[in-house]
Task: structure prediction
Amino acid sequence: MKIGVLALQGDFREHIAALDSLQVEIEIIAVRHASEIVEIDALVIPGGESTTIAKLARSFGLFASIQDRIASGMPIYGSCAGMILLADRLIDAAKGQETFGGIDMTVRRNAFGRQIDSFEMDIDFAGVVGGTVKGVFIRAPWVDEIGPDVEVLATVMQDGLAHPVAVRQGNLLATSFHPEISGDNRVHRYFVQQVYQNLLVGK
Ligand code: GLN
Result:
């Protein structure tokens, strides 16, 4: 099995290290070319700057191939900027900002506001062994609205409202926070387990 980590910009090295730390039989490759998108079984889209990743994906000719693989059901995990890139709709997008889409959700960029640009908190995460994970949020988005096929795996309370910060739709998984820099690889393990299941049942 081969998992690609989109390596155009952002913290892709940390994702590669987190996947590597699982010590399971997977090949992990840094993806920069369209030819690599067709040969992987799953993809991770890192945190970083979603506008930059989208622009580079366009200019490196990866955009359409990623969208094709999303449409054909390849498992993809996006953290933070990666969540933004998997959203069908955005609030507070940059002018002309594109996303790959795939998850029927509206994501609000930089949702937590300036005063708490970055913070950490324990999060109850459905499906992850042990339940609670450390959420590292850096200029993080949250999910404002979801369609009927989207499952909420974790939320954060703000002003009396529960905002989704981890969601799943079919083979697509997205978190507002960065497990790749938390030193805890259970979210990556959860994703890889989904990937294995996907391969076993045949897409
Ligand atoms: N705010 C960034 C964006 O809009 C995401 C931040 C992150 O990935 N840590 O792309």
The pocket of glutamine is lined by residues 47-50, 80-81, 84, 109-110, 138-139 (CB under 6 Å). The helical segments are 12-20, 34-37, 50-59, 63-71, 81-86, 186-201. The chain has one domain: 2-202.
